[in-house]
Amino acid sequence: xxxxxxDPLFQLIKSISKxxxxxxxxxxxxxxxxxxxxxxxxxDVLDKMDEYNETIxxxxxxxxxxxxxxxxxxxxxxxxxxxxxxxxxxxxxSISIREQIDHAKVLYNKGLYQQSLRxxxxxxxxxxxxxxxxxxxxxxxxxxxxxxxxxTKSIENxxxxxxxxxxxxxxxxxxxxxxxxxxxxxxxxxxxxxYVRNEKDLLMVKEFFNTNLIPHDVENLSFFxxxxxxxxxxxxxxxxxxxxxxxxxxxxxVDLFLINxxxxxxxxxxxxxxxxxxxxxxFYTNHVSNFKKHLxxxxxxxxxxxxxxxxxxxxxxxxxxxVHRINRxxxxxxxxxxxxxxxxxxxxxxxxxxxxxxxxALIFYYxxxxxxxxxxxxxxxxxxxxxxSDVRDTxxxxxxxxxxxxxxxxxxxxxxxxxxxxxxxxxxYRFLAKMDDLQEVQKYILRFLRKLSSISPDQLKNELxxxxxxxKKWVNDPYEKRAFLYxxxxxxxxxxxxxxxxxxxxxxxxxxxxx
Length: 515
Fold this sequence. Notes:
Blueprint: H1 8-15, H2 18-28, H3 34-48, H4 54-60, H5 69-88, H6 93-109, H7 113-129, H8 133-149, H9 158-193, H10 199-212, H11 223-239, H12 243-259, H13 262-266, H14 268-285, H15 288-300, H16 311-332, H17 335-338, H18 341-351, H19 358-374, H20 378-390, H21 398-414, H22 418-434, H23 440-452, H24 457-472, H25 482-486, H26 489-498, H27 502-514
Helix pairs in contact: 2-5, 3-5, 6-7, 7-8, 8-9, 9-11, 11-12, 12-14, 14-15, 14-16, 15-16, 16-19, 19-20, 19-21, 20-21, 21-22, 21-23, 22-23, 23-24, 24-26, 26-27
């Protein structure tokens, strides 16, 4: 469903945990003025609401007048952020470092320059240790400010030392900014178009990548320069569907953290995303044993303490876990066994609906629809595919929108909804044309479904066999093969020809490949 506009304060309150709410109450109760009592009253009302409604707020919080509400909301928002910052200091090194910089600023404002410099020097060492280069740069700039205005006699040749440090960190940051920009632009391209659809797409992506990739010696790059370089390669090879090379660089991404284990806890979100991309590449290369090994590695992280204190990490971890647990059932052909995940995913989406974007929800809807389709539960598949269609913004993951509609058509065909099918085929054709995603496989399947609705039963098997033969020629086509990444059309046709469940056909193929 399209996401509704959510009040920022209400969204913040719904995102915090029970322990964070308890800490906020302890923090806020230190203040006892009438104004503060009102903002706590507002917090309690918002905390108990399921949807933001100002009429209900004013009705339940009787001490609050409508004219006071905007200021009280702003004040409550500020106090919540202050409380959350205090509770996260011990769990987020960046917040801890910034606190020390703030302390140095207070001392500087009091004219205690030597004390300020001592704190900055200790904090700079901590920031370097944790590779927080932007904060290192900020500290150095602060040190330059103090040294340039006051005679501190802190050390000999201080000006030369700070200048050298500033130059070194500036060069390092230039490289990080360059590679991170490249990675982000490639990721944005992947979100928009998915995999390359034709030679024009391929040439465009290759030209962008090769033009922007500057000569480099990986061994001499910093941790983050390597990280964003490997990310760039992952997005590039993912887009052009070279999944072996995608795996190679996703593995380099993960190995970079394993070589620098102290960075895992500091940048757990980036480590998680690396593991996710290793699993994505292994899924598409159908390397089952290696996939299971990395999935176990991901599942072990559930026990890590920091996921209890960071909602973002907790959402990322469980989102990746659910997606890849479904993928494992796809790889094993156990669609029926995978259905137990659906209620858990529904609860996960409901609990995190405030922070969940449409892109992530779309992936889940499509994966769940494929689970039901593989298990022969076409009505349930259609229910989740309709959720994809209900999302009007098709600028992100247009590939899922397109193939979701094709799977919807096949599901209606299986249910013998012939009256609906003709209309939906025309509608899907127009949609794919509008999205510039009407390739030969898509055109063929639309023509095929339209023909099937009018073919006689005695001719059906021959038509299915012919269609399977026709589609097989595109399985290894560099551009047309992307359709088979979203839909296992060959297995579906095999199931129709042999009059067997799709799940049985897929499991049989998997068992043959293992021998």
